[in-house]
Amino acid sequence: MRSTLEGTTPVELLKAERQADGSHTSERLTEMLRRGEVLRVRRGIYVPAQAWVEAPPWTQYEITVAAVAISRAPLFCRETTLLLHGLPLLKTPPAVYGRTSDPGSAKQFAPPPLTGKVPPQQFRRRYDATYADGALHQARLSGISVKLLEAACPAGTSRSELRQCVRAGTYRSPEVRRDAGALQAVVGPKAGYRSEPLSLAVIDTVSRMSFTEAVVVLDAVKARNDVDVDKWLQYLRSQRQRERWQRAWDFADGRAESALESESRVLIDQIKCPAPTLQKVIRTPAGAFRTDFCWERERVVGEVDGKVKYFHQQYTHGIDPAELHYREKQRREALEGQGWRVVRWGKDEFRDPRMLRARLSHVGLL
Questions:
Q1: pLDDT tens digits, 181-194
Q2: What are the boundaries of each domain within the chain?
Q3: What is d(CA 195, CA 272) in angstroms, rounded to the nearest whole number?
Q4: Does domain 259-362 fall into CATH 3.40.960.10?
């Protein structure tokens, strides 16, 4: 999960507020909502309707995080904190995560209607009349919930003991500040985002994830030099959490350069294929090429791609997709000219591992 495409301007949210002349922008924004021009992400926080409707789910998530930060400024945690610190996620989180000091508020809050008091069908008619790019489906008008959690509790401290410390003011959740540009897709609050430290969020979140999700995060963590998890290991409260953490941590490899490569590493291991070398540079008369995966003895190169790799900034670095496809063709021909066999795979293989097993078996790896 990452955000914007090359050249895309971050979305600017609109806030209902009093102006210097005494007027209030809420009336204007409410009228824009009735005309199908904006949507209300949170109370008093609006987004241009077209920007939301055309955005992929992860961009809608970032927009919601920014809107929540502007409207209530909670202390963000778990997946939301990972995102604020630039770590990749395998899938879009189901909610925006924040901390609360009130046990009674520790629950999930349904999102407010994006169309406010305007009936969704009426909004869709107004929107379709303004933007002729196709009918607006109801699913595009679904918001994202907020889930508030009590403070992370270290091993050796009971939840009731921690609550007493919170009430007495002797304990506060650790906090750092992320700047307004922490999310690529949206302009954040001027004061930035309140966030738990990344290392704590990594410990608290990864131990609750699936193995594949955890490896995606930890591969990226190991590629950085600003994450010290050792001091937070006490937050792994149960043996099950510690075992899940240790397994993913031991498997993680900072040489993986994308979530696609991390997911591939897990799948390769699951189908009992020999572990490949990552990021090996192979020299040919046409130039030197760095490969995603390499099995030197079998002279096999593995490359993970798919539609996402040709259209997202994270993978294209601003290169035109057609040009990128041409370069990949030249690269493959150069490698094959030196006796390497090139195997490619993408999302279809992730959905059905038997397809990848068949591809790797065909070149003698299984």
A1: 999 999 999 999 99
A2: 14-189, 197-254, 259-362
A3: 39
A4: yes
